[in-house]
Design goal:
Blueprint (H helix, E strand, L loop, with lengths): L11 E5 L15 H6 L1 H6 L4 E4 L3 E2 L11 E5 L6 H13 L3 E6 L9 H6 L13 E2 L20 E4 L4 E4 L14 H16 L4 E4 L47 H13 L5 E5 L5 H9 L7 E3 L10 H14 L6 E3 L8 H4 L10 H11 L3 E5 L19 H6 L41 H6 L4 H12 L3 H5 L1 E4 L7 E7 L2 E7 L6 E4 L6 E2 L8 E3 L2 E4 L4 E5 L1
Parallel strand pairs: 1-2, 1-13, 2-5, 5-9, 9-10, 10-11, 12-13
Antiparallel strand pairs: 3-4, 6-8, 7-8, 14-15, 15-16, 16-21, 17-20, 18-21, 19-20
Length: 538
């Protein structure tokens, strides 16, 4: 890799959801010590960094995305000494450490909110978004919570409503208040001083609201709804022009980037949930004074046909300008991609591998979710064992996020080798055949195939940092050229269960080996067997 290329640009980030990764003390909940124990496994994949989902002090009503102490480690996950040990071990293994920052809202148990709600004239009275009711007592406007119902909750102490984009127990901070902005910058500096190499910013476009509190307009008939929520959710009926993505956000991103620039080799990756995600990503990653990179929900949706994927990639190529994407197919909030994109009958031994080839061949950085390297499908979690409040609210049409959050299966035993206690979510028995120990011992396993592909990709300059050009008229095959100064590659992918044949779309100078796929040439035809890829130098 070029010495001028920062590590994050084209880097691969492995997301660890600590609750479900590895439990070190038998309480059924994964923790920092467990994650540290398994870091050599993560490093063996060939990735560049880990992203830790929240481990901060929290009542856990939204499993850590409701923070009550931004500088504390929740006892469920361990101690501050455990965090320091994790950072030390990660750095020993040449892994960077990115941690979540959930700064748009707090828990209602955070001391800031407890003080703010006491009266209308205390020192933190304006640290959250408060508003008087309409004359008839109803909420100030029509804004909705992603988790269902109004985005406003009544507080009897102040006789006012407060804003919450998620659970009522997650009040939104008022970023129009400079003291709030500075307090959150100070909290992030705290973790940078402890050795964090960067932050994944949850809901990065949710920080500011329109102070006029004007209603959101309805989505016009026939127009696309937002990807931010599931289609049956009333939240998708509105255009979110007043509750999200306000212009003032840019100024805060400037301040945040200035902080990061004090700590060389650190990075910011933002999660963007917006009606116009590409436009927002271009805006938020433009130049050198905002986010380093961002990701949206375009490839985290249910849509997945070759034409859709080609269209998404092309739009990003044409619309992102000098910005930089971080691509993801799965995370802790969506159905695992192997199940989400399956149309039925997919070969679960081969399908996950070609999906990983797709992810690793796009221009940008990569976020892999724990278990993706195993080819894990979505777990089945019975209603009576659901933990996710989002899923409980919208059951059965939407089953929530628990199916992608079940424990990682390390061993083919009833608790998956994850814990000696009762797992916080049940281990799906169908996952046991995907156990790490079994796959490690099988040279032909998905794990070993993905590990081989990652190590190979990390040695291809064109795939790590090259430009990209999507090729047209390739039918169900996805084809593009990746080009760096020292290498130019043709990438061809077959995400279908049918053999694809197409005229060779460009002149090639040599076939590449070592990636583990079996696409081949038959005269001037490129042949892609089901779920296969082809890589060649051009």
């Amino acid at each position: 890799m070029s010495q001028s290329q920062p590590w994050w640009k084209g880097g691969i980030i492995y997301q660890i959801y600590p609750r479900s990764f590895m439990d070190s003390n038998g309480d059924g909940i994964g923790d920092l010590k467990g994650a540290t124990e398994k870091l050599p496994y993560v490093a063996s994949l060939g990735v560049d960094a880990i992203w830790l989902s929240p481990f901060f002090t929290s009542p856990m009503k939204d499993f850590g995305y409701d923070v009550s102490d931004y500088r504390g480690v929740d006892p469920l996950f361990g101690t501050m000494a455990d965090f320091r040990a994790l950072v030390s071990e990660a750095h020993r293994l040449n892994l960077k450490v990115i941690i979540d920052q959930v700064i748009s809202h707090t828990s209602d148990a955070h001391p800031w909110f407890e003080e703010s709600r006491r009266s209308r004239d205390n020192p933190k009275a304006d640290w959250f978004v408060w508003a008087d009711p309409k004359p008839d007592g109803t909420p100030p406007n029509n804004w909705l919570s992603i988790f269902g119902g109004s985005a406003w909750a009544w507080d009897t102490r102040r006789g006012q409503y407060y804003l919450h984009n998620f659970l009522a127990s997650q009040p939104d901070l008022n970023f129009h208040n400079p003291e709030v902005r500075q307090a959150q910058l100070d909290n992030m500096r705290f973790w940078l001083d402890l050795g964090a190499d960067g932050f994944r910013l949850d809901t990065v476009n949710f920080y500011f609201h329109n102070q006029s509190l004007a209603d959101n307009p309805a989505v016009p008939a026939g127009e696309n709804k937002t990807f931010v929520a599931q289609g049956m959710n009333p939240y998708t009926y509105q255009r979110h022009v007043n509750d999200l993505s306000q212009p003032e956000n840019i100024g805060f991103l400037n301040d945040l980037r200035a902080l990061m620039d004090e700590y060389p080799e650190t990075t910011l990756v933002g999660e963007i949930g917006d009606d116009k995600p590409l436009e927002r990503m271009a805006e938020y990653t433009a130049g050198n004074d905002r986010l380093h990179m961002a990701y949206s929900f375009d490839l985290l949706s249910d849509r997945h046909g070759p034409e859709y994927v080609r269209d998404v990639v092309r739009r990003y190529q044409e619309g992102l300008g000098d910005g930089w994407p971080c691509w993801a197919l799965s995370n802790h909030d969506v159905v695992r991609v192997v199940s989400r994109w399956a149309d039925g009958g997919e070969d679960l031994r081969l399908y996950p591998r070609v999906l990983m080839a797709l992810l690793l061949s796009l221009r940008g950085s990569v976020s892999m979710y724990q278990g993706e390297e195993l080819g894990l499908p979505e777990a089945s979690v019975p209603y009576e064992e659901l933990q996710d409040p989002y899923g409980i609210s919208f059951w059965p049409e939407f089953r929530g996020r628990d199916g992608c959050r079940t424990p990682i299966v390390w061993e083919p035993v009833p608790k998956g080798g994850f814990t000696s206690g009762k797992p916080w979510l049940p281990v799906d028995r169908d996952h046991l055949e995907f156990a790490v120990s079994q796959q490690e011992a099988d040279p032909g396993s998905t794990l070993n195939a993905v590990r081989k592909l990652i190590h190979w990709r990390q040695q291809q300059p064109a795939l790590v940092r090259g430009d990209m050009r999507v090729l047209d008229n390739t039918g169900d095959a996805l084809c593009w050229i990746r080009e760096a100064s020292e290498q130019s590659l043709l990438v061809a992918l077959n995400l279908t269960g049918e053999e694809l044949r197409l005229a060779l779309p460009c002149t090639i100078s040599g076939l590449l080996e070592g990636h583990g796929f079996h696409g081949y040439l038959d005269g001037n035809e490129l042949v892609l067997p089901p779920y296969q890829a082809f890589f060649a130098e051009t």
